[in-house]
Amino acid sequence: MEKMVIANDEFFVPVRQMLEEGHSVTIPVKGFSMLPFIRGERDLVVLEPVGEVRPDDIVLFHIGPEKGGRYVMHRVLSVAGDRVEIQGDGVPVNRERVLRSQIFGKAVSILRDGEKAVDPYSPRELRKVHLWQALRPVRRYLLFIYRNLPWNRRWLKPQYAEALKQYED
Amino acid sequence: MKIKEGFIMRTLCGQNVVQAVGPKNVNFSKLVSLNESAAYLFAKVNGQGEFTPETLRDLLLEEYEVDPETALADAGKLCEQWAEAGILE
After folding, report:
1. Which residues, 6 or more positions from B12, have their beta carbon under 8 angstroms from its beta carbon?
2. Cβ distance A105 to A19 under 8 Å?
3. A10/B13 CB distance under 8 A
4. Could you tell me if residue A1 is inside a domain?
């Protein structure tokens, strides 16, 4: 089937609208900033309207126009009142600091290869996430190894590694 | 045949696309894109119950200057594509 490429903002406007009306929404994932937990071009994500935002939540949010005004899905690191700090699992250093009002969806299920549903907040998954976060000082190298595993190279083409660079310092 | 329940057409990036809107989940991962005439036909038959390639041919003849044979051939092809995309039952 032919792949249809739609500009980020245009794609997410109806997604956001559906979430705001209370629907759950299934979306494809682009990019690799949530590696190794969500794999762009392979996995799908089921989103729901977001209630309380908590650390470890994978959230869809809108980053301000000063950073390109795009919609991004990353993981919450910490919440302090209305201020939320977010970072992609596959991003070595950069973080986003946003307001609660910029967040409008929470991932409730990851469909591996579009099929096998994984609960991203099961104790088992969260253990992996916390281990991954503890290894943040060497994340850059782990990502390099991950991207170059023979079975990953096939789908993680060089241009995607290129796409990750925008998140690096 | 008819269009399955729960499909809607919307415009994304200037393209008409058909999307599954379930009672619980709206799927943005599978979109069926339609050209202008397919979008016209979809709008006409969605929610209107059973139709055949002949129904689509007649609708095409109402709107476009085309000979009936070509219209029927195109309608048949379109039905096959829609069936393949899983929007017919």
Report:
1. A6, A10, A11, A14, B31
2. yes
3. yes
4. no
Contact B29 A44 (CB under 8 A): yes
Binning chain B into helix, strand and coil, the percentages to the nearest 5 are 45, 25, 35
At residue B21 the predicted structure's pLDDT band, cuts being 50, 70 and 90, is confident
Mean pLDDT of A144-155: 82
A23: chain B residues, CB-CB within 8 Å: 21, 24-26
Within a domain: residue A2? no
pLDDT per position as a tens digit, A29-65: 888 889 999 988 889 999 999 999 999 999 999 987 7
CATH number at residue A32: 2.10.109.10
The total number of structural domains that make up chain A: 1
Residue B31 to residue A23, Cβ atoms within 8 A:
no
Q: Which chain B residues contact residue A44 at CB under 8 A?
A: 29
A137 token code pair: 């000082």
Domain that holds residue A45: 8-167
Considering only CB atoms, B26 lies closest to which of A25, A28, A44, namely: A25
* Residues contacting A146, CB < 8 A, separation 6+: A35, A36, A152
Nearby residues of A68 by Cβ (< 8 Å), 6 or more positions away: none
Query: Per residue in A76-130, pLDDT tens?
Result: 999 999 999 999 999 988 899 999 999 999 999 999 988 899 999 999 999 999 9
What is the β-pairing status of strands A44-48 and A58-62?
unpaired
Reported ipTM: the value is 0.75
Is residue A89 assigned to a domain?
Answer: yes
